[in-house]
Write a structure and sequence with these properties.
With about 575 residues, the protein is α/β, with parallel strands linked by helices. Among the domains are: about 5-85, Gyrase A, domain 2, CATH 3.30.1360; about 165-250, no CATH class; about 265-360, no CATH class. It is about 50% helix and about 10% strand. The protein has 21 helices and 13 strands. Helix 17 (about 455-475) packs parallel to helix 20 (about 515-535). The longest helix is centred in the middle third of the chain and has 24 residues, at about 220-245. The chain is globular and about 85 Å long. It starts with a helix and ends in a 9-residue tail after the last helix.
Length: about 575
């Protein structure tokens, strides 16, 4: 149950009874929650609209509020209304959370959502730049599914294009030399670099590579067989990374560029029939008034090249067409680099002109910034190459293992290995998700692996500390189901209200898919619990109070675990 939304509705009713209907943003969570306090701030704007004193309108609103969930209502300042929740109501909602697998989060009205994320180029291994799209997109998919929507994961991988001519020509050359291709493809990056170097420095090879592109696109069986072998090896590399990162993408979620190849002529024909295509220097483009260059001339949206080939926009148009016509998508979220803003703006605009998108289709670009080193420069190797994502994962797990060895040497090797994997992977994902996705951020090993501050290790450790309380007392949480929740201390109430804010937090994340909102909530929840833990003895309290506080502790652990799971981050029972 979203308590904020519930209070919103009740305040709106009270305002409407005074002739101030339709005033937005009636209530907002107070900066400092104390005794379950919320604050109605919409009275100020409503009073201005009605041309009366805010304090007078606030008094009229309070007189029209009759809610059992409120312990007391106060008018503060010129016309703010402070709403204090009844402790028994808080306890009732916490019981509903604990008895629900969904932690009292209501299901949304279901819609079909396509999420386009990760999308590596299969010619090379995944690099650090793919971390953002992959982590943010996967968190969005997890959240929307949890809220009750039908989610279609779309991994629009790059598996088609000119660079594959070089790769196929190189594969054929190695095979002719008797080299085992499966061995050569073990390191895709080296393979790609070797083929690219030959293309740049050997004109005979380059000419051969260009011929391979034509043969591949023409359906030549030999080229297709080589291409399929290369793609299979590339996908295997990607899936290994997804499994290490706890990403929900599977092979079945791949809808590659090549899958739209047969639809590209159809797109051109349809745009031609609608008189949208204009020939420019032999190429076929769409010119829309909304896109003007710095020189004042219209910017072309290139759909077909002068040589008959197709650019990215063509396959992206075919993808939009497929997602609305075949998948019946109500919404599509594109977690793509911010530098692709113009491309995606043109894509959606042309799609609307072509009728691929209607007013009912909400297709949205969810941009993100870049990952930087401490010096503010892009995160690359010393020679300027992109850092492999699998190397980042290995480094994170290795560093986490050193921390775990120092923190808890009593754990056996298998347990320490498991904890290191969970902590290391969680650290790099959380470092990504805890930032506003539209900004650049600095990749800092020491910060992300710290057990202090807003980090995954801090939250994971907070979870294990709560579980250790139950181990020390030799009490199983399930045995507490008949215990009462007794909320009398201020910090008990504060923790209770913070727990109740999970539904409104998840809805806030879903508004613009800013995972950092959920990260901040979990960090605040862990901090609130630690304050409660230090001020309110648990195991030394009398039995009734002890069991009540154990219930609060268990619910906090479950909420931390669920929140981290929605971010794609795992927990362990001991660290």
């Amino acid at each position: 149950m979203n308590i904020r939304k519930y209070l919103d509705a009740e305040i709106e009713k009270a305002l409407a009874s005074q002739g101030a209907s339709g005033c937005p943003a009636i209530t907002k969570q107070a900066q400092r929650v104390e005794f379950g306090q919320y604050q109605a701030n919409g009275v100020m704007g409503a009073a201005k609209k009605l041309k009366i004193k805010p304090h007078d309108l606030a008094r009229q609103v309070v007189d029209n509020l009759n809610l059992d969930c409120l312990q007391r209502v106060e008018i503060a300042g010129p016309g703010f209304i402070n709403l204090h929740l009844e402790p028994t109501f808080i306890a009732e909602r916490l019981r509903a959370m604990r008895s629900s697998e969904r932690l009292d989060v209501e299901r949304a009205e279901s819609k079909t959502v396509v999420i386009d994320y990760s999308a590596p180029n299969l010619a090379k291994e995944m690099h650090i730049g793919h971390l953002r799209s992959t982590s943010i997109g996967d968190a969005a998919a997890r959240l929307l599914e949890f809220l009750g929507h039908t989610v279609i994961r779309a991994n629009h991988v790059g598996d088609w294009g000119a660079q594959f001519g070089s790769l196929l020509a190189y594969m054929d050359q190695l095979a002719a030399q008797g080299e085992e291709l499966s061995t050569a493809l073990t390191d895709l990056e080296k393979f790609y670099m070797a083929a690219s170097a030959l293309f740049r420095n050997d004109e005979t090879f380059a000419k051969n590579a260009r011929e391979y592109v034509v043969r591949l696109q023409g359906g030549d069986p030999h080229c297709l067989a080589l291409w399929e072998q290369f793609i299979e090896e590339s996908i295997t590399h990607c899936q290994a990374v997804y499994e290490r990162l706890n990403i929900t993408l599977t092979r079945e979620d791949i809808k590659a560029e090549s899958s739209y190849n047969d639809d590209l002529p159809k797109v051109v024909n349809e745009l031609t029939d609608m008189s949208l295509l204009v020939e420019s220097d032999g190429a076929k483009c769409v010119f829309l008034d909304a896109f003007i260059g710095k020189d004042g001339n219209p910017l072309p949206a290139l759909v077909q090249k002068s040589d008959g080939g197709y650019p990215y926009l063509a396959s992206d148009l075919a993808a939009v067409r497929y997602r609305t016509r075949e998948l019946k998508a109500d919404q599509a979220l594109y977690f793509v680099d911010a530098r692709q803003k113009l491309h995606l703006s043109q894509l959606f605009a042309v799609s609307r002109e072509a009728g691929y998108l209607s007013a009912e289709n909400d297709f949205k670009h969810c941009p993100f910034g870049v990952i930087l080193k401490k010096d503010g420069k892009p995160f690359k190797t010393r020679d300027g190459a992109d850092v492999k994502l699998r190397d980042v994962i290995e480094e994170a797990v290795s560093r986490a293992r050193d921390l775990v060895n120092a923190k808890n040497p009593e754990l056996d090797d298998a347990a320490r290995g498991r904890v290191a994997e969970v902590v290391g992977v969680g650290a790099i994902k959380y470092a990504e998700l805890s930032k506003n996705r539209t900004t650049d951020y600095i990749f800092d090993w020491d910060t992300m692996l710290s057990f202090e501050g807003n980090t995954a290790p801090y939250l994971q450790y907070a979870y294990t500390r709560i579980r250790s309380i139950f181990r020390r007392a030799d009490i199983k949480p399930d045995t507490l189901h008949n215990s009462r929740l007794l909320l009398t201390e201020p910090l008990e109430l504060e923790l209770g209200v913070k727990l109740m804010q999970l539904p409104e937090t998840l809805e806030a994340v879903a508004e613009d898919f800013q995972a950092n909102i959920l990260c901040n909530y979990l960090f605040e929840l862990a901090g609130t619990f630690m304050s409660f833990y230090e001020a309110c003895p648990i195991l030394k309290a009398e039995e009734g109070v002890r069991d009540s506080r154990l219930l609060l502790s268990d619910l906090t652990a479950n909420t931390l675990k669920k929140g981290l799971d929605l971010l794609g981050i795992e927990v362990v029972e001991q660290m």
